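TL;DR need structure tokens for one chain.
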Amino acid sequence: MNTRTQKAINTTYLSIFGNALLALVKGLTGVFGQSYALIADAIESTTDVFASILVLIGLKYAAKPPDENHPYGHGKAEPLITFAVVGFLVISATIIAHDSIQNIQTPHEGPKTYTLPVLAVIVLVKELFYRFVNKRSDETRSTSLKADAWHHRSDAITSLMAFIGISVAVFMGEGYEAADDWAALLASGFIVFNAYLIFRPALGEIMDEHLHDDLISKIRAISQTVTGVIDTEKCHVRKSGIAYHVDLHLIVRGSISVKEGHDIAHRLKSTLQEALPELSDILIHVEPDA
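>> reply
TL;DR here they are.
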């Protein structure tokens, strides 16, 4: 297992622990503080725990080496797991919206004031979690870890909405008891929107969509530094988990032997993989110049 995969896995363990602890804090505070927005927030955090467990399973499976039935490795498992994570987000948003609407229609007591400082701390913690996990997802180029990061951001948003709703209910007094329920309903919409933001790049990865112009530019620039390379032509990149597969057309002098062209291609492959460790495999097609 490479360093980037291990880093992604360690980050996911942290997410699982953090989400479980915050779900417990939110749930207890919501129940005793009479705030459905906080209870809804706890529901969202609980689904985050299961989603993070899915991410962990996906990362470990995607890290398995290629075998006879999977010559390109198991990296595609990662965006598939991301789809499951998106499903958890949509389900939690649906539950929150349904229960919020029911609570809005049912008279009830307003939330307790002490729920506000608890929520303020939660918003700060979840935003810090988002920034940390998002940074790790950029470092490891993990789609599912990016989805996990957005789980933390959506959690921060629902907590912020709850904070606003509870503030209105507490400080405006009688007649505004349902303000935190409206906040929870609004938060469910944010969760669905975040689910789309996670779903779109994962779909692009499954469909081998062209999304890697920056990486292709690096590949072409590095190729020009290898002795014997005249130019590069076609360059296609496919993402699979945290790794990339490259199909590259290499142009060499037409007068050299097949063995010399073969040696140049091998030097180029070694140079690219040394400079860009995320390139799992590179298929190089050698073409003569005009």
